[in-house]
């Protein structure tokens, strides 16, 4: 337990921020997992594109809030896009 008043405040702030960051991380992990599951179960291309767009949005929001780095969000989006393109090409 911290002895200094400012250190006590930091502990309180970290608890709040940890919970906030956790919910954002959980959100983008779930959306990503949903997209990958849709690809595996061979959902319709419209549904896949909709989920990809949602994934972009959620990842960008996480990067904007500082939960993940901007470049990490970019890398994740690129990898998802590659998976989606590969799936859509296999349909044609």
Describe the SSE topology.
Elements: H1 5-40, H2 45-65, H3 70-91
Helix pairs in contact: 1-2, 1-3, 2-3
CA gyration radius, whole angstroms? 18 Å
CATH class category: Mainly Alpha
CATH second-level architecture: Up-down Bundle
Shape: elongated
How many domains?
Answer: 1
Poorly predicted runs:
none
Q: What is the mean pLDDT? A: 95
Instruction: Assess the beta-strand content as a share of residues.
Output: under 5%
Number of helices: 3
Order of helices and strands: HHH
Taking the sheet with the most strands, its summary is: none
- Write down the CATH topology: Methane Monooxygenase Hydroxylase, Chain G, domain 1
The named CATH superfamily: Ribosomal protein S20
Percent of residues in helices comes to over 70%
Structural class: mainly alpha
What is the count of β-strands?
Answer: 0
Oligomer: single chain
* N/C terminus separation: 61 Å
Brief write-up:
It contains 3 helices and no strands.
Quickly list its features.
92 residues, mainly alpha, Methane Monooxygenase Hydroxylase, Chain G, domain 1, elongated, Ribosomal_bS20, small ribosomal subunit rRNA binding, ribosomal protein, ribonucleoprotein, structural constituent of ribosome
Structure description:
- This protein has 92 residues and is mostly helical.
- It has one domain (5-91): Methane Monooxygenase Hydroxylase, Chain G, domain 1 (Up-down Bundle), CATH 1.20.58.
- Helices cover 86% and strands 0% of the residues.
- It contains three helices and no strands.
- The chain is elongated.
- The termini are far apart.
- The model has no long low-confidence stretch (mean pLDDT 95).
- One of its GO terms (biological process) is translation.
- InterPro entries: Ribosomal_bS20 (IPR002583), Ribosomal_bS20_sf (IPR036510).
- This is Small ribosomal subunit protein bS20.
- It comes from Kosmotoga pacifica.
